[in-house]
Amino acid sequence: MKKVLTVLSIVSMILIASSQAQAVALFTDRTAFLAATTGMTNIDFEENSYGAFTYYPSGATFSGVNFVGSGYLYTIDPALATSIYDWDSGDILSDQYETGPINVALPGGGFTAVGSDIMSFDPYASDFIITLSTGDVFTVSSANYPTRAFVGFTSNVPISWLTFDATSSVYANLDNFVFGSAGITPIPEPATLSLLGFGLLGLAGLRKKRS
Length: 211
Description:
alpha+beta, 2 domains, eight-stranded antiparallel β-sheet, globular
């Protein structure tokens, strides 16, 4: 009986360790991302009249999310200069004349899902290095004008901030920024499942030997 309890204890510890392990998933398809999340808030930056812009020298806050640029942040209506600002999504948030990151701080609440359209110009299709508060770092690419790329993340631990750094472009742009909760329970890694299988086999062997 003690041996059976020991095996059960080991299996329980494996399952607990698996559920607590940090896991961040990357999405590049908005539809798939939204299907894996719940309670999402969308920030579309729509605030300007036709051909106008709003200047944020010290950062901007939308729906409790704080955005701070390396240069000057603007929300821009695409009619201001359609050849560079019209990404078929209305107003965008743009970091002007800098190559550093856009820093984004989420409000308190333990959000575990975040995503955004990413665009760049000068030149177009820049690599973006995206760093999360979880310590994870991802490199993705924006698409050529006027196609928007999307990047999203789900995590089993809260994401409190992230940065978007367009490494080869002077202009980093965001739109349709979303945040909320991951809706899928992380699946144990294959190695964990293997250990669980061995534990169950050991339990079965003990039962057989006892009989």
